[in-house]
Design a protein that fits this description.
- Keywords: ATP-binding, Nucleotide-binding.
- This is ATP-binding protein.
- InterPro entries: HATPase_C_sf, HATPase_dom.
- The protein is α+β, with helices and mostly antiparallel strands and about 270 residues long.
- It has a single domain, classed as Heat Shock Protein 90 (2-Layer Sandwich), CATH 3.30.565.
- The protein is built from nine helices and eight strands.
- It has an eight-stranded mixed beta sheet, sandwiched between helices.
- The longest helix is centred in the middle third of the chain and has 20 residues.
- The protein is globular.
Length: about 270
Amino acid sequence: MDAAHHDSPAEPALRGFSLLRDRVPTDMAARVASRFAGTVQDQRDDAVATGRGLPERAVETLLMERADRDRLRAAFDRSPFLTVELGEGADEAAAPLDDWSGAPAADDPGLPGFYLSLTTGTAYGLQCPVLVCDELVRRGVLEPQRRSNVELCLHEAVANAIVHGNLGLSSAVKGEPGGYRRFSEMMRDRLGDPAVTRRRLDIFCRWNGRCIAIAVVDQGGGFDTALAPATTGNKARSGRGFVFMRTLASRVTVTDGGRCTVLQFDR
């Protein structure tokens, strides 16, 4: 994977480079391709069907040491395909080689979409669903009257990825005596652990004339996807989030051992 760096004196917090998909290690490509098999293939088929063909395998990317709302909005205004937060003190040269899910995004970079990769510490303090939906509306992909369903569904997926995925917290704790207090203490402890807060949360958006697909990926331990319920009882303490998402989205797919949730919405 090659990175050609271009310093930007006007905006030193945003550093651009070009990511070449052909250099992604085979094992990494196989893992991330399995996460997005339907999403990426649908986009490829759409390009062939419309006669647009497939572009060169390079994608414009912006790196930033630390992300916040204003920096991310400034990055989106420049319309890169990938926006990657390195994290404070990270090795910039090594960052693109991490097992983050940008590989399929660079596979067909000429097709519409964008990709956001943040550290857990940053994602926890940001309204990621709001930023993503703002960008989808700005690009004319998401109609304002349909935004609420997408934003609510994405909020649930991101919360699951952060809390249950990267922070590794189980809702079962809440069912114990004093469980909510204990859950809050555990969350505070996890957010104070640099090794945990450096884990990545990736949001990958692509679309065509038929649908919008949004994938949310974490680096947690995953879960048995067969346990993600289609329905829950009124007394259920967990699993309601997936029922909620399946009610709002046209389709919800969970892959990569529970670490990737793909939300699809008809346009």
